[in-house]
Design a protein that fits this description.
The protein is an all-alpha fold. 68% of the residues lie in helices and 2% in strands.
């Protein structure tokens, strides 16, 4: 009897592996092709507009047109990945087919005119949208449909950045904070690898910048990495709060949505005149400069936060990860210069640490460090990613993420809580714990400052 049960079990698992290998391969091919088409159109459009010195004067019109397009499919609004997460958690994985062309056009228009957004979010949403269509055509059940959509996210991420392993993990990790969706791990890897290979074969070029200089290990250097990680966590928090503030400001404008695009685009034009045009668009050149150890302006990361927040809040369409790379690389370069270390190494660490903190994806960000920069920097990047993830707190650039568990045993958050619906957190009182002692000290300091102000 036991042998029969074992045989049945192994047969079911074998069939499951074959099934998901085939389905994930299909998704990988579909997403690889669609991503390549998207990247090709995007490259052509940005090259065309870059021929004009003041191309960014088109921003008001571009964001106006983006808003018009989004009215055809509201799911195309914002930064792509967030809407896919929302669709999986709230709408049973249903993504309208119209979202795919709308997202592609709105993103191309936004980036070509200088909007500060990325390309991975649209690729993930296009991949997820096509996966949803694929699931509907072949009438898959709800559970399998969600798996296919997650494969679409992974494949889209992998084919944009050329990181098949990190892309696969990102699609699984980004859905929940503090937990991984292990059921879809295998098909996500297959979809990511196939999508990467397809897009490579179709001529998509990927970023790879191995770091040659890594200091010899020492406790003093490790402490500097730890301090840097805390700094990157704070930068992640600044980005998240800036996005929220810009969104609230946009909502307070009681005008027709496309008019908000004109307002936001006009503000970006003025800011570009005052500061620099390097904060517009993808900003790949600045990222490469930081990673090569070149000079960056100390406030580059703050200006990029400002430009990105305005673009997304005022009807721009695009992703978040490329701006996160810009912010992390320039913040890391600044940190390296301040502490007298090779700025290119800290630019690399900062780039992945910002992703870990802002998106709550420390595992995929750590793996990305290896795929982007080689194994030498990996131990320090991994530690920095984890600390940045913790320092960001229970916030995210993706407010539809769901908690599997809190980031600290001393903080109580109900499992299944959505970030955007999270109210004030509850601190678990443990009289003899270090955390509780620190909380009490912070409360005493706060009370003292409040009393001092009242007396003043």
């Amino acid at each position: 009897m036991k042998k029969k049960q074992l045989l049945i079990e192994q047969s079911v698992l074998f069939i499951s592996v074959i099934k998901w290998f085939f389905l994930a391969t299909c998704i990988g091919i579909i997403v690889g092709v669609s991503t390549s088409v998207f990247i090709t159109i995007l490259n052509w459009s940005t090259e065309a507009t870059a021929q004009f010195e003041y191309y960014y004067l088109l921003l008001p019109l571009a964001l106006f047109l983006s808003a018009i397009l989004i009215k055809l499919s509201p799911e195309a609004k914002g930064h792509g990945t967030e809407k896919v997460i929302e669709a999986i958690h709230r709408y049973k994985g249903n993504i309208k087919a119209l979202t795919v062309p709308v997202k592609l056009l709105a993103t191309v228009i936004t980036i070509a005119a200088g909007g500060s957004v990325g390309k991975e979010g649209p690729a993930a949403q296009i991949g997820a949208g096509l996966s949803s269509v694929f699931a509907n055509v072949f009438r898959f059940n709800k559970k399998d449909k969600k798996k296919l959509i997650i494969c679409g996210i992974s494949a889209g991420f992998a084919s944009v950045f050329g990181t098949p392993i990190a892309g696969a993990i990102f699609g699984v990790e980004v859905l929940f904070i503090g937990g991984l969706f292990y059921d879809v791990m295998f098909p996500s890897f297959v979809a990511g690898i196939i999508s990467y290979q397809v897009s490579s074969a179709m001529g998509v070029e990927f970023f790879y910048s191995p770091i040659d200089f890594v200091p010899a290990f020492s406790e003093f250097f490790l402490i500097k990495v730890l301090i840097g990680a805390i700094f990157f966590g704070v930068c992640s928090l600044l980005l998240i709060e800036a996005l929220k503030f810009a969104e609230l400001t946009s909502k307070k404008l009681t005008i027709w949505e496309p008019y908000k695009g004109i307002v936001g685009g006009s503000v970006l034009v003025v800011l570009a005149f005052i500061t620099s045009t390097k904060y517009l668009g993808l900003g790949i050149e600045t990222i490469e400069t930081a990673l090569e150890g070149g000079k960056v302006f100390p406030l580059d990361f703050l200006f990029k936060i400002l430009f990105t927040s305005i673009t997304l809040a005022f009807c721009g369409s695009g992703g978040m990860v490329t701006p996160i790379f810009f912010i992390g690389a320039t913040a890391g370069s600044l940190f390296g210069l301040l502490f007298g270390y090779n700025p290119s190494m800290f630019a690399a660490i900062g780039m992945v640490s910002l992703l870990a903190g802002a998106a709550n994806t420390p595992i995929s960000a750590s793996i990305m460090a290896i795929e982007f920069f080689g194994p030498a920097v990996a131990p320090y990047a991994a530690m920095s990613c984890i600390v940045s993830y913790l320092m960001t707190g229970h916030r995210s650039v993706y407010p539809s993420q769901v908690f599997s568990r809190s980031k600290s045993a001393s903080i109580h958050i109900e499992e299944g809580t959505v970030i955007e619906k999270l109210g004030s957190i509850k601190i678990r009182r443990r009289p003899h714990s270090i955390t509780d002692g620190l909380v009490r000290i912070m409360n005493w300091v706060s009370d003292f400052i409040r009393t001092f102000k009242n007396k003043g």
